[in-house]
Amino acid sequence: MVVQSQKDRRAMKLVSVNTGLPREVSWHGRMVTTGIFKEPVKGRVALRKLNLDGDRQADLTVHGGEYKAVYCYPLAHYDYWKKEFIAQKPRDGAEVPGRELPMGMFGENFTIDDDGKALHGGQGLVEESVHLGDRFSVGTAEVAVTQPRLPCYKLGIRFASDDMPKRFLASGRTGFYVAVVREGEVGAGDEMKLTAREANAVAVSEITHLYVVKRYGEAEIGAVRRALRVAELPESWKQYFRERLRQAGERS
Predict the structure, then answer these.
(1) What angle do CA 21, 22, 25 make, to 5 degrees?
(2) Which of 49, 107, 140, 183 counts the most CB atoms within 10 A of its CB?
(3) Angle at 228 between CA 224 and CA 229, to 5 degrees
(4) DSSP letter assigned to residue 52
(5) Chain CA centroid to CA 52, Å
(6) CB 18 within 8 A of CB 108
(7) DSSP 3-state assignment of 21?
(8) What's the gap between Cα 117 and its chain centre?
């Protein structure tokens, strides 16, 4: 772990803290329980090891847990999706999402803003400048980045669109999950300050690429080997990447 000097530290801002409890919704003729419906909360909220107070996940086999305690999504992506939806034409009389997307629309707990700049200088997606293992102080808590989001069909439920998960992943605008290193309280307006960087830095966007790319070349193999050395990457991801290395004829 590389500790950042005060001069090198960059920060993002916590624009909105969003929570929600599981609810039942009708989807394609059946009832589905989902916790993807999040709404902004006022004041300060206790951040604990597994989630924020007032927030729960419906299916704990694939959502929540220590490595998915909090889901972060960049505010800048909202503008991208608004433009996408405005350009989208209605089909079969279905309603297309409008210009307004409320905070928490993507099921995120933290809506974050990097002020239009990549975290470590220059322009680009936040996912390209945030790395596995990066640690951030936020409010009185501390969190560590663990993985990108791989969307499931429930994102499609939220947007009333079956193809939304596929579009979401293809956009590269996945956001990322964090684990809670130190419990505390957080609230809208807090800064997320980078406090330490993992020595084997692998960007969130690169992890997504390594997951979806069909063939591994030398660059991918090197990136996977670095990722496997990051303690914060969940074991399920490590197992997946070890299998990909095996398929590529490499040993982990």
Answers:
(1) 135
(2) 107
(3) 125
(4) B
(5) 15
(6) yes
(7) coil
(8) 18
Q: How far apart are the first and last CA of the chain?
A: 21
Q: Which helix (H) or strand (E) segment is 135 a member of?
A: strand 135-138
Say if CB 174 and CB 148 are below 8 A apart: yes
Task: Give every CB contact of residue 86 below 8 A, 6+ residues apart in sequence.
Answer: 99
3-state secondary structure of 160: coil
What SS3 state is found at 237?
helix
Alpha-carbon span 195 to 143, nearest angstrom = 10
Q: What distance in Å separates the CA atoms of residue 222 and residue 214, rounded to the nearest whole number?
A: 16
Report CA-CA distances (Å) from 231 to 66, 68, 237: 13, 15, 11
Give CA–CA dist 224/92, Å, rounded.
Answer: 43
Say which DSSP state 25 is in. E
- Tokens linked to 198: 């993992």
**pLDDT by residue (tens digit) across 50-108?**
999 999 886 666 667 899 999 999 999 999 999 888 766 555 444 555 557 999 999 99
Q: 235 CB contacts (<8 Å, ≥6 apart)? A: none
Which residues are paired to 148 by β-bridges? 176
pTM exceeds 0.85, yes or no: yes
Backbone angles phi, psi at 112, to 5 degrees: -120, 155
Work out whether the CA dihedral 194, 200, 204, 206 comes out positive or negative: positive
Radius of gyration of the chain (CA): 18
Chain segment 117-151, per-residue pLDDT in tens: 655 544 579 999 999 999 999 999 999 999 999 99
Task: Judge whether 70 and 76 are in contact, CB under 8 Å.
Answer: no
CA–CA separation, 221 and 203 (whole Å) = 15
